[in-house]
Amino acid sequence: MSTQPDPARGAAVKATDRAHVFHSWSAQGLIDPLAVAGAEGSYFWDYDGNRYLDFSSQLVNTNIGHQHPKVVAAIQEQAARLCTIAPGFAVDVRSEAARLVAERTPGDLDKIFFTNGGAEAVENAVRMARLHTGRPKVLSAYRSYHGATAAAINLTGDPRRWASDTGSAGVIHFWAPFLYRSPFHAESEEQECERALRHLEDTIVFEGPATIAAILLETVPGTAGIMVPPPGYLPGVRALCDRYGIVLVLDEVMAGFGRTGRWFAADHFGVTPDLLTFAKGVNSGYVPLGGVAISAEIAATFETRPYPGGLTYSGHPLACASAVATIDAMAEEGIVENAARIGEDVLGPGLRELAERHPSVGEVRGLGAFWAVELVRDRATREPLVPYAATGEANAPMAAFTAACRAAGLWPFVNMNRTHAVPPCTVTVSEAKEGLAALDEALTVADRYTV
Predict the structure, then answer these.
(1) Residue 7 CA to chain centroid, in angstroms?
(2) How far is the CA of 339 from the CAs of 349, 389, 429, in angstroms?
(3) Which residues, at least 6 apart from 147, have a Cβ–Cβ distance to it below 8 Å?
(4) pLDDT confidence bin for 2, thresholds 50/70/90
(5) CB–CB of 93/274 below 8 Å?
(6) For position 115, what pLDDT does the model report?
(7) What are residue 410's phi and psi, to 5 degrees?
(8) Given this model, what pLDDT does residue 166 score?
């Protein structure tokens, strides 16, 4: 792909964008979107010739990097053969994509319902759980993000929920474990696990177990902060679900398909949910695709009873062809294993070394190609670098940090007082080290705001 600068073309692209595109999660008059000219591997570039190392994987979804030739070719070949067909037909690429996903999901999650993305996957998983149990309520964690559609946004825990929260969607929020900012005053991972499980069971008991259809958890929360659950927590949640007849739904939209160094994050914890949602890494977002992996017991509920849900583009052939090519490429090229190695040998040690030298770093945590750096004003008190849900001037320290990253040729994933190191799972050792060096430089800017 050409990387020759073309500022005039870039200006035209941005002008048309500003005239006609309505951007998500944004005050339209306050944004200045970068006009992107192209991308390849771990990098993308603008029309002025600036190249950025993508430490965001866009929205933590380009797990196989940009423009993987095998996936691009698969989309082209499928488009030449069969662009689209209704979801009621049996199609080779749809069947094969479902088989490949089911082959990698834990336990008996062998039926796949395809959606267009992660939010729709969550919507349908919750609907399945409610219909299967005949119960109305769903429990989800405060530090979470599950999507922006009607049920998914109510299930979300972070502030993006507030503007659309109806307060009547049958959603109950609870505190999941997070030792660094423990709501349970725990002093160890063991205490945090024990107290978080006790809190969850108390919530179940006081809400009425017979009213609760499902507990929905991101296996490893993503945008909310990449808080790896302590040993024993997810098996404990599984046991509570079994005890009270509650469906366990694990949201692997961001953590799945190699991101944590395993095919699914659940593999780290030896837990099989009843329903598992996925999207993003299933085909690195080359064509919109998501889905729900369904256990045999829940699938049986709809064996002779119609499932009341569907999508015009469920299992779209172009999306499924890209998923088949993605999963095959990940297996053939050892991409999941690469993410695990990079995390263990480069990102983890490198980020911890940065933490030792920068007073703005409060904690580093993660797995595989999935890491968070918690930025603080005061290490002793753990006061965040910016307040919760900060905007405008209150968010100036994080804005300055973000600008410093971009000036150093790094495109970060920033949320609240955190930066996430989430490069493609194909990232090389040299690229990871390049990213760490840019973070080192940008953290000196964050350090200026510490006490």
Answers:
(1) 33
(2) 14, 31, 10
(3) 117, 118, 119, 120, 121, 122, 123, 153, 155, 156, 253
(4) low
(5) no
(6) 98
(7) -120, 130
(8) 83
Residue bearing tokens 């970060």: 412
Q: What is the identity of the amino acid at 96?
A: E
pLDDT of residue 1: 58
Tokens 């997070």 belong to residue: 178
Pairwise CA distance, residues 181 & 192, whole Å: 10
pLDDT at position 302 over 90 = yes
Separation CA 50–CA 376 (nearest Å): 30
Q: With b meaning 16 or more CB within 10 Å and e meaning fewer, what string describes 67-77?
A: bbeebeebbee
Q: Average pLDDT of 5-13?
A: 96
Is the pLDDT reported for residue 168 higher than 80? Answer: no
Q: Which residues contact 364 (CB under 8 A, 6 or more apart)?
A: 348, 351, 352, 354, 355, 371, 372, 373, 374
Q: Are 366 and 227 in contact, with CB atoms under 8 Å apart?
A: no
Residue 344 is classified by DSSP as I
Q: What is the pTM (predicted TM-score) of this model?
A: 0.96
Span 340-353, average pLDDT: 98
Cα 302–chain centre separation: 29
Tell me if residue 31 falls in helix, strand or coil: coil
CA distance 189 to 187: 7
Q: How many CB atoms lie within 10 A of CB 421?
A: 29
Q: What is the Cα–Cα distance from 238 to 142, expressed in whole angstroms?
A: 19
User: What mean pLDDT, rounded, does the chain reach?
Assistant: 97
| Tokens 């996936």, residue located | 71
Which residue type, as a one-letter code, is found at position 377? R
- Read off the pLDDT band of 4 (50, 70, 90): confident
Mean predicted confidence (pLDDT) in 308-334: 98
On the question of pLDDT at 317 being above 80, the answer is: yes
Query: Cα(402)–Cα(438) distance, rounded to whole angstroms?
Result: 11
Contact 140, 148 (CB under 8 A): no
Q: Let me know: does 143 contact 227? Beta carbons within 8 Å.
A: yes
* Eight-state DSSP code of residue 347: I
Element (H, E) at 38: strand 36-40
